[in-house]
């Protein structure tokens, strides 16, 4: 038996101590001038998040923060995140944290420009073709844990708050 396959994840990955200082340059490369940092409630008040926001502010990128992220993010978290993104005039997302913060951050960047309900993009058949690709905001993912790999994946897991079923978007 032989395995044959193609792998297409053209994600640039930077790692190493102190690399968070390069975040403004990453924003510039992605065309982000007013990022919204999306993270979970547990990280929101920690020094690592404050230091990251200080770096962004010092570079003239503001201190946009959204942290209403549940451990299993749902469409209510998503709606609140999109509202914060739009209200703040943001033009990109920094998804910051573990899998929940990263997944919701990616979803905020995705859904901020879409006109259909999130469930219309569930990973079923070719439903992904319903998305307006030009309306997806730039995303930078900063994992603070090793685990889910959400920082390099294309999808997010969102929990339906009514059925409690997890959906891949």
Account of the 3D structure:
The chain is of the alpha/beta class. It has one domain (19-168): Rossmann fold. The chain is 30% helix and 14% strand. It has five helices and six strands, in the order αβααβαβαβββ. The chain has helices at 23-30, 41-44, 47-58, 75-87, 99-111; strands spanning 35-38, 64-66, 92-97, 139-143, 157-159, 166-168. The strands form two sheets. It has a four-stranded parallel β-sheet, with helices on both faces. The protein has a two-stranded antiparallel ribbon with strand order 5-6. A hairpin with a 6-residue loop joins strand 5 and strand 6 (166-168). The protein is globular, with a radius of gyration of 16 Å.
Summarize this, please?
The chain has five helices and six strands; from the N terminus they run αβααβαβαβββ.
Name the descriptors.
alpha/beta, Rossmann fold, single chain, 4-stranded parallel β-sheet, 169 residues
Tell me the strand percentage band. Answer: 5-15%
- Please, what is the average pLDDT? 92
Q: Please, how many domains?
A: 1
CATH architecture classification name: 3-Layer(aba) Sandwich
Measure the end-to-end span. Answer: 33 Å
State the secondary-structure class. alpha/beta
Count every helix, treating DSSP H or I runs of 4 or more residues as helices: 5
């Amino acid at each position: 038996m032989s395995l044959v396959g193609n792998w297409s994840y053209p994600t640039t990955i930077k790692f190493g101590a102190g690399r968070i200082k390069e975040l403004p340059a990453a924003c510039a490369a992605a065309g982000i001038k007013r990022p919204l940092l999306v993270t979970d409630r547990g990280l929101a008040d920690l020094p690592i998040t404050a230091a990251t926001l200080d770096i962004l502010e010092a570079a003239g990128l503001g201190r946009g923060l959204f942290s209403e992220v549940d451990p299993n993010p749902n469409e209510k978290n998503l709606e609140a995140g999109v509202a914060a993104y739009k209200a703040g005039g943001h033009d990109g997302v920094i998804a910051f944290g573990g899998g929940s913060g990263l997944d919701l951050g990616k979803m905020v960047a995705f859904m901020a420009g879409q006109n259909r309900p999130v469930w219309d993009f569930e990973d079923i058949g070719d439903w992904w073709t319903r998305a307006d690709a030009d309306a997806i905001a730039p995303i930078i993912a900063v994992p603070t844990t090793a685990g889910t790999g959400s920082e390099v994946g294309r999808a997010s897991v969102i929990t339906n708050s009514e059925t409690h079923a997890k959906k891949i978007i």
